[in-house]
Design brief:
Elements: H1 2-29, H2 35-62, H3 64-71, H4 73-78, H5 80-109, H6 113-134
Protein name: Cytochrome B
Transmembrane segments: 6-21, 42-62, 82-100, 121-139
Keywords: Membrane, Transmembrane, Transmembrane helix
Amino acid sequence: MLHLHSFLRWAIILAGLWAVIRSLKGVTGKTPFTPADKKAGLFFMIACDLQLLVGLILYFLISPLSKAGLADMGAAMKDPVIRFFTVEHEIMAIVAIALVHIGKSKIKKAATDAQKHKLGLIFFGLAFLVILALIPWPFREALGKGWF
């Protein structure tokens, strides 16, 4: 499951980058909101939802780090690695997924193509930045888990 969770990170990064680039292109180029723009946001949302499902399974059923953190939250808050994987990672993931869902909903309700692109850029862009911050990249010394 951890390997699947790590692999899905790349799907989210690619889908998120696609959604942000399409929104940016729409804002700067004043292009119409096309089915490809809609699909980019949809794939970003689906990838995030799949990641959430796998992450919840890891968090509550498999991960020894989250089990240790949930067993003694006081000790977990003193250990940066356990705190990250027990609290910070999950909170940021929920915030990012909420931003993607709110963005998709607001885009559906927007009246003009310009508004749709702008909302996509704001919500997908913010979600993408949060996602980049929540990933335990290999270059983050204490948290690095490898590229795959």
